[in-house]
């Protein structure tokens, strides 16, 4: 228990360092662009592939579960759209990026710690926590909502394809359904959740990397712990935000 | 000059630094020697602020480092250069970017003047045509040289070297030692070198501080090291058969 509190305390102390004034804005800006390229643009492929299959699967499952002949067929399109918007896309993107970028961030910072590169930054007079974490944090907080919106779009495309190829419901019903009574607020809600997940993934992975002690084995372990803890916290945050915002 | 006054540091209940008082002089190579685990690295980390001391004060000329706020320390650190055991070069950057990094962070010079400075530093440490290489493409000795180039890029007043010879063959080790000594005298900087290599002591030890089990056990010059009565230091200096034979033969 004592260790948990110590970890939470150190996490917030790291956050305090991360949000202190940067030495050179232009260098941080360039770093942020690099991180967006690495963790954001580099994740478009995997998010698109997963989303298209999830969208297709949700469409088939919804069709399978709605057997009532009194319900119009376009309701499947409505359900797929709202499922993707309200839950699947943001949470799925969060978990995928926690696995992909979270482990990468924890390993990168962890290796820098064990090879004394972080000490070298500190001795130069650079705030190492801010220099290493802030660009990643900005990149993921900005780009995760974009990935989430992309995931919704590609997921809907997956549903469309399965209607077109698999003859689940008529394509016209599906298209009508995904346009039926659309609340833009749902999209804002999904993107807000994704931004929160971006914050959690970056700070937790950075924390585990930043405080690693030992060698390659410990770096690997801290990377695994970063993914596990951020995945759990993503699901907890999902529950909390859903309860606060939608309930 | 750096002055350490009654430095204490303990991990759990064990003192790793016990009442260390020493002056590290400007324009000289101050060698801190001792067995592995004697507290040399903790002492150096305490001096540069990577570890906090439990008691005592560290003075950089007239500035009390131990009482400084974080931002004041960051300012002072711009006057420091440090060579880490493994070099600690940023492995995602080229050698040129590594050496230019502190210049990018703290100066507003033009790119061409920064590049001139980088080339000067690399030339000074004897590295040529490595600008576009990444650290993984260099040998151990070249990495150390590149790390020295990065450490001197900002013309530091204080240079810290943590076991600069570890993992190097004797010939390369002597070259690195001589390079550190040349830079120290050339720029009149305060250099602190951690080492357990007796060759380094005899080569560049303008001042030698022997740490034994966390305490300052002996202090003197490289000439005095070989003729001291201090038993612990003698055991350290003449630990190898070769050294014992040399001692017997006078």
Descriptive report:
With 247 residues, chain A is mostly helical. Chain A has nine helices and no strands. In chain A, helix 4 (75-114) runs antiparallel to helix 6 (128-166). The longest helix of chain A has 40 residues, at 75-114. Chain A starts with a helix and ends with a helix. With 250 residues, chain B is an alpha/beta fold. Chain B has a single domain, classed as P-loop containing nucleotide triphosphate hydrolases (Rossmann fold, 3-Layer(aba) Sandwich). Helix content of chain B is 40%, strand content 24%. In chain B, the strands form two sheets. Chain B has a six-stranded mixed sheet with strand order 6-7-8-3-9-10, sandwiched between helices. A four-stranded antiparallel sheet of chain B has the order 2-1-4-5, covered by helices on one side. In chain B, strand 1 and strand 2 form a beta hairpin. In chain B, helix 3 crosses helix 4, helix 3 packs parallel to helix 5 and helix 4 crosses helix 5. At the A-B interface, helix 5 of A face helix 2, strand 6 and helix 3 of B.
Give the helix/strand layout.
The complex is a heterodimer of chains A (247) and B (250).
Chain A (H helix, E strand, L loop, with lengths): L1 H17 L6 H16 L3 H22 L9 H40 L2 H7 L4 H39 L4 H9 L4 H27 L5 H31 L1
Helix pairs in contact in A: 1-6, 2-6, 3-4, 3-6, 4-6, 4-7, 4-8, 4-9, 6-7, 6-8, 8-9
Chain B lengths: L1 E10 L2 E11 L4 E5 L6 H9 L6 E6 L2 E2 L5 H8 L2 E4 L11 H12 L4 H14 L15 H13 L5 E5 L7 H18 L2 E6 L2 H7 L2 E6 L2 E6 L1 H4 L5 H7 L3 H8 L2
Parallel strand pairs in B: 3-8, 3-9, 6-7, 7-8
Antiparallel strand pairs in B: 1-2, 1-4, 4-5, 9-10
């Amino acid at each position: 228990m004592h260790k948990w509190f110590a970890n939470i305390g150190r996490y917030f102390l790291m956050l305090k360092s991360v949000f202190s004034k940067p030495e050179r804005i232009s260098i941080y800006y360039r770093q942020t662009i690099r991180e967006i390229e690495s963790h954001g643009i580099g994740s478009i492929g995997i998010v698109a592939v997963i989303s298209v299959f999830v969208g297709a699967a949700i469409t088939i499952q919804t069709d399978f579960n709605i057997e009532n002949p009194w319900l119009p067929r376009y309701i499947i399109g409505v359900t797929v759209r709202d499922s993707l918007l309200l839950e699947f896309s943001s949470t799925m993107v969060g978990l995928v990026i926690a696995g992909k970028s979270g482990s990468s961030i924890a390993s990168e910072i962890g290796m820098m710690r064990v090879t004394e590169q972080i000490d070298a930054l500190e001795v130069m007079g650079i705030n190492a926590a801010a220099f290493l974490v802030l660009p990643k944090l900005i990149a993921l907080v900005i780009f995760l909502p974009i990935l989430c919106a992309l995931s919704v779009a590609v997921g809907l495309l997956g549903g469309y394809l399965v209607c077109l190829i698999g003859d689940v419901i008529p394509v016209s019903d599906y298209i009508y359904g995904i346009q039926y009574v659309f609340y833009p607020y749902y999209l804002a809600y999904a993107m807000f959740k994704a931004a929160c997940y971006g914050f959690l993934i970056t700070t937790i992975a950075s924390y585990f990397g930043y405080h690693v002690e030992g060698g390659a084995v410990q770096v690997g372990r801290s990377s695994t712990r970063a993914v596990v803890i951020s995945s759990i916290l993503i699901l907890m945050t999902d529950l909390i935000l859903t309860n606060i915002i939608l309930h | 000059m750096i002055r350490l006054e009654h430095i204490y540091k303990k991990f759990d209940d064990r003192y790793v630094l016990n009442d260390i008082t020493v002056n590290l002089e400007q324009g000289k190579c101050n060698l801190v020697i001792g067995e592995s685990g004697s507290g040399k690295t903790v002492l150096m980390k305490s001096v540069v602020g990577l570890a906090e001391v439990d008691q005592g004060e560290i003075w950089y000329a007239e500035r009390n480092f131990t009482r400084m706020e974080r931002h004041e320390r960051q300012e002072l650190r711009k006057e420091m250069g440090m060579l880490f055991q493994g070099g600690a070069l940023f492995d995602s950057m080229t050698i040129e970017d590594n050496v230019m990094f502190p210049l990018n962070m703290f100066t507003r010079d033009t790119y061409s003047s920064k590049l001139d400075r980088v080339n000067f530093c690399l030339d000074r440490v004897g590295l040529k045509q490595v600008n576009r290489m990444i650290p993984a493409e260099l040998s151990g000795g070249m990495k150390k040289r590149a790390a020295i180039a990065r450490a001197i890029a900002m013309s530091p007043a204080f240079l810290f070297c943590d076991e600069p010879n570890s993992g190097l063959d004797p010939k390369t080790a002597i070259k690195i030692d001589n390079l550190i000594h040349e830079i120290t005298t050339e720029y009149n900087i305060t250099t602190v070198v951690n080492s357990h290599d007796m060759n380094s002591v005899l080569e560049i030890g303008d001042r030698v501080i022997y740490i034994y089990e966390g305490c300052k056990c002996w202090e003197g010059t490289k000439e005095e090291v070989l003729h001291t009565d201090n038993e612990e230091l003698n055991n350290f200096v003449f630990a190898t058969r070769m050294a014992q034979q040399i001692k017997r033969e006078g």
